[in-house]
Design goal:
Elements: E1 5-10, H1 14-29, E2 34-39, H2 48-51, H3 58-61, H4 63-72, E3 76-79, H5 90-96, E4 99-102, E5 106-109, E6 122-124, H6 125-132, E7 148-152, H7 156-166, H8 179-186, E8 192-196, H9 208-214, E9 220-224, H10 226-230, H11 246-260, E10 268-273, E11 276-282, E12 289-297, E13 303-312, E14 316-319, E15 323-325, E16 342-343, E17 346-349, E18 352-359, H12 362-365, H13 373-387, H14 389-392, H15 402-409, H16 417-432, H17 448-455
Parallel strand pairs: 1-2, 1-4, 2-3, 4-18, 6-14, 7-8, 7-14, 8-10, 9-10
Antiparallel strand pairs: 5-15, 11-12, 12-13, 16-17, 17-18
Helix pairs in contact: 1-13, 6-7, 16-17
Length: about 450
């Protein structure tokens, strides 16, 4: 009787869950008895679905249903609240499993090299998203004291950040927004949120559904500048969006409909600016403004500066220009690219594959593509792993309880799938018990210790 082939997946977001599910299915087709453990550094699963998607996106969060189904039958075991590289080293993990797949995502803001970027009032979008999504490892308070704000970026994250900043907090109550986040947004004096992109309106990276939702925010006027559109058109477009066909046409119609609107006099305004390249953040002790150089098409598919500069008076700047991966201790890492170096998913060290170590998702290829793209990405990695099966399977590994015994000997308060179900039920009960006229699906529990205690049915000490 052959021994089970034991695989650890590090990261319980979509990339990790897809990898575990695809591995289980393809191994069964090949007659391989595989046992998959899914490690997560947070007490709860789902990664960026829980902690990286704006709370007012229920359609995107519907992906949780399919992820739930992949874990619910127990064929992939969840082990949460375990930091690989700290609570358990990679070497220790390899002594317990035949193979390890890293699906740790991209959680840090991309580096922006601008004068003044370190001033108080300059924020990374990743940190702000973690705050409004109730991530347990960020401070409970966010400094929301600016009336004029700038958001740098023309992607969906920039749009999410701008929308949450501009939206009236009462309109977020129907979501799973944590109480401390609602209280913080309620006290915000914001009046104008400005979103800036280096390229033109034909080259925006938003998806049509994200863009359309922006115009449906109650009590917020969308403001566009005719000057930004006078530069656009088939004769000057940089071409990225022109190639997108129907999607570009849909977004062009949305933008035009906003240009045709009369301002309603709403108390908050959301401005979309194009052809603005940031030059520096202004201020001495804190952000007081931001300077841009106006840009134009260079005729070769790119942009160039015009030499014309313009300043905006703002008291906060949010950088939403991309994410990058975080290194895992003792795992090769390409700091310049922000990924684990790999060949089709096989992790490379000095250009050579490290037998038994693999990567998938954004930590493998960078933060590009939508959530659904991680399925195909995971399939490639699993194919490589199964090609290596015969080289890996002969190694003797302990039984499935060995890792739990190890974590308990270290005093690690790990969580399980059953624990997540308990936390999930608790958060839903908080939503049902919410005092007010708004129906809430859940209210997120934020503190890590409280999440762990609820998951493990421990007494909560306040």
């Amino acid at each position: 009787m052959s021994r089970p082939f034991r695989v650890a997946v590090v990261g319980a977001g979509p990339a990790g869950i897809y990898a575990g599910n695809i591995l289980r299915t393809r191994a069964a087709e090949s007659g391989i008895d595989v046992r998959v453990d899914l490690f997560e550094s947070l007490p709860a699963p789902y990664g960026l679905i829980r902690y990286g998607v704006a709370p007012d996106h229920p359609r995107i969060k519907g992906i949780v249903t399919s992820l739930h189904d992949m874990l619910a039958d127990g064929s992939v075991r969840l082990i949460g609240n375990v930091e690989v590289g700290a609570d358990i080293t990679v070497d220790e993990l390899q002594s317990l499993y035949h193979a390890v797949i890293f699906a740790t995502g991209a959680q840090r803001d991309a580096v922006v090299d601008l004068p003044g970027i370190e001033l108080p009032g300059s924020f990374g979008a990743a940190d702000f998203v973690s705050w409004y999504d109730g991530h347990p490892d960020v401070p409970r308070h966010w400094p929301l004291d600016a009336t004029q704000l700038a958001v740098l970026g023309n992607g969906n994250v920039a749009l999410d950040v701008a929308r949450v900043l501009a939206k009236h907090p009462a309109d977020l109550l129907a979501t799973d927004i944590p109480a401390n986040v609602h209280d913080g947004l309620l006290a915000s004096p914001v009046e104008d949120v400005h979103v800036f992109g280096r390229r033109g309106p034909e080259d925006i990276k938003f998806t049509p559904i994200e863009l359309r939702e922006l115009g449906e925010v109650p009590g917020v006027d969308i403001v566009l500048s005719d000057e930004d559109f006078d530069r656009a058109g088939d004769d000057v477009t940089t071409g990225e969006r022109r190639a997108a066909g129907n999607q570009a046409k849909v977004m062009a119609r949305i933008l035009q409909s906003w240009r045709d609107r009369e301002p309603s006099g709403a108390p908050r305004r959301l401005h979309l600016h194009f052809w603005h390249r940031p030059v520096e953040l202004l201020g001495e002790e804190a952000v007081t403004g931001i300077r841009f150089e106006r840009t134009e098409p260079d005729g070769e598919g790119g942009i160039r500066g015009t030499g014309v500069h313009v300043d905006y008076d703002v008291q906060a700047v949010y950088r939403a220009i991309g994410y990058r991966g975080t290194p895992v201790r003792d795992v090769p890492f390409d700091e310049s690219a922000g990924v684990i170096p790999n060949d089709g998913g096989r992790i490379l060290d000095g250009g050579e594959p490290v037998l038994g170590l693999y990567a998938t998702g954004w930590i493998k290829r960078g933060p590009v593509g939508l959530i659904g793209h991680t399925k195909g990405d995971a399939g490639e990695t699993i194919e490589k792993l199964l090609e290596d099966h015969d080289l890996l399977a002969d190694a003797v590994r302990p039984g499935e309880d060995a890792v739990l015994d190890f974590l308990e000997s270290r005093g690690v308060r790990y969580t399980t799938w059953e624990g997540w179900l308990a936390l999930d039920a608790h958060e839903r009960a908080l939503g049902e018990g919410f005092a007010g006229d708004v129906e809430r699906e859940r209210v997120k529990v934020v503190p890590r210790d409280e999440q762990v205690a609820i998951s493990n049915r421990e007494v909560i000490v306040r």
